[in-house]
Design brief:
single chain; about 250 residues; mainly alpha; MetI-like fold; about 0% strand; globular; MetI-like; transmembrane; transmembrane helix
């Protein structure tokens, strides 16, 4: 019953948006070049799906996101853990990483393209740079918020550093780590689309940019909707994994 209510409530705003969109495009003088009809967007989606363009663009962008997100997660969790467990490592890297984190992602893209070209490597580097920081920061927060009493008990039993990490730090930090992973995944999508908009010959971002140049807003909206839908699906998958890996979090909420 609770899930049904949540499902109904979550559908209110999308339904209102669709109703408003239908009204504006059918009963006002809004130019089609600014906002196309829902039917036109649907037709563009079908056309791209039939000719294979949709599958090609989605597969390219998803591949880039998965590869970049994997490296960002690996680096972010590792660095956050090391900085959280060692004050020395934190002192060495914190100032530099905080400085880099303040530079907007869009400012990095021209330089990364200059270094790595316009092929997949530059997109993956942009994704890693964008997704790394929320993962690292949340991992660091999770590690440093581990109750000191647990750590002292582990040291009292003379556990190795690895066992202290796996038995004490990691279970305590996992909820925060998954928060960082979910934030990083969202940024990964923004990063790949931004990179593809600027310099690419394939992918969803490229298709949106190409449609803009050709004044085809229906194709642009198809690309935007695809990004949102795929992003939600990937977020749900990550949430499902988080529930399975951290069942005690759900138990506390219940």
């Amino acid at each position: 019953m609770k899930n049904t209510k949540q499902l109904v409530l979550s559908g209110i705003i999308p339904i209102l948006i669709i109703i408003g969109w239908y009204y504006v495009t059918n009963y006002t003088n809004t130019p089609k070049a600014i906002l196309p009809k829902i039917s036109a967007v649907g037709a563009a989606f079908v056309k791209q799906a039939v000719n294979g363009q949709l599958t090609a663009d989605v597969s390219v962008s998803v591949k880039r996101v998965i590869e970049g997100f994997f490296f960002a997660a690996l680096l972010g969790v590792t660095m956050g853990t090391l900085m959280g467990m060692s004050l020395t490592i934190r002192s060495i890297f914190m100032l530099t990483l905080n400085t880099i984190r303040q530079i907007p992602m869009m400012a990095w893209i021209p330089m990364i393209i200059l270094w790595c070209g316009i092929e997949d490597l530059s997109k993956i580097v942009v994704i890693v740079l964008g997704a790394f920081f929320p993962i690292m920061v949340n991992t660091l927060s999770g590690i440093t918020s581990t109750p000191q009493g647990y750590i002292e008990v582990a040291k009292l039993y003379r556990l190795s550093s690895w066992k202290i990490f796996t038995k004490v730090y990691l279970p305590s930090a996992l909820p925060q780590i998954f928060v960082g992973l979910k934030l990083g995944l969202g940024i990964a999508w923004m990063a790949v689309v931004a990179a593809e908009l600027i310099a690419s010959s394939k992918g969803i971002g490229y298709r949106i940019s190409d449609a803009r140049n050709l004044m085809k807003p229906d194709i642009m909206i198809v690309g935007m909707l695809l990004i949102g839908i795929i992003g939600i699906l990937m977020d749900r998958i990550l949430s499902y994994i988080a529930k399975k890996v951290t069942p005690w979090v759900e138990a506390r909420r219940a």
